[in-house]
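Figure 2 data, in text form.
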Amino acid sequence: MAQYRTSRILSDRASLIFVAIVAAMAVIVPILNLAIPQGSPGHVPTYIVTLMGKYLCYAMLAIAVDLIWGFCGILSLGHGAFFALGGYAMGMYLMRQIGTRGVYGNPVLPDFMVFLNYDHLPWYWLGSDSFLFTVFLIMAVPGLLAFVFGWLAFRSRVSGVYFSIITQALTYALLLAFFRNDMGFGGNNGLTDFKDILGFSVQAQGTRATLFFLSAAGVVGAFLLCRWLVGSKFGRVLVGIRDAESRTRFLGYRVEHYKLAVFTLSAVIAGIAGALYVPQVGIINPGEFSPANSIEIVIWVALGGRGTLWGAALGAVLVNFTKTYFTGAAPEYWTYILGAMFVLVTLFLPAGVAGALTGGGHPLRRGLGLFTSMGRRKQPEGGAVDPAEPEAAR
């Protein structure tokens, strides 16, 4: 019990530190970018601000995945789809803001539609020129898809590896659909060449700093919401579902309803992260639906520390920072490096980086001790451990 209380105190302290760091970054980084002249000590270049903003969007996405996987045991391999749908909703708004400044100068139709001989705007693009309606779409489209998909899956009691497979099938199906030109989303090229957002140039230094601030605020907001949720009675039921779903159902809880609610919320958070991501990177295309992207998100969470929320966000930042470095320094070896990171953390840091930072049972020492104890064990003839031999004597 004392160990549990110590772990809880360390976790709460780590959460406070995480929120404080991200909140401080939300204020300090834009000031260092806008207030300090270029070339002066302490100035943060705009491209660094954009890169850090992208990392924060990934951190928000990792928190969304950790909410369902770390606390409810739902391993989704399709959350990249919800991220991409939120991004496409924002991309539609940004494309409508181009207006006559496009290559073909059409005030209504985006350039790719003119090129493909569209004579009118598809019905699902109507209203996309309104920012408020776009905000609604950013949350409603991923949320509605997650609700329908989750309702069909959870009421049929699909779980475990089967649920993971069908979520991956979902994102792959969306990948194939969005690749088609007749879907009306730019096909393989996607949506790009954005000009303005709310009347401000997306390339302007001030706009970049504002988007960074909003991304940091999104991470803090998502973290606090999820932290409050998992600390409530609802969160305790989620943990009960994760650890003993049949027993929780036997106690009278509608397990399907809890799973559906948290899965839908997680999809909405992922969609918001995607919407913040698109104006910073300047493009959204079907590649964001790639199943490999969704698998990589799970790796972020596992490396950072499943079931901690802040550890998942930290894992997303660490992995993507490493990816940025090695894709420039040694691009042909990046996938091997990612695989090695995952294997090493699994062996020596089973609680992830978060577990190591909070001293959760010294996971590195446990990992090293595993091999040491295996070498010291006595083995009878034939090389097998005698089950009748006392554990202390092994």
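Caption note: The beta strands are 191-192, 196-197, 200-201, 283-284.
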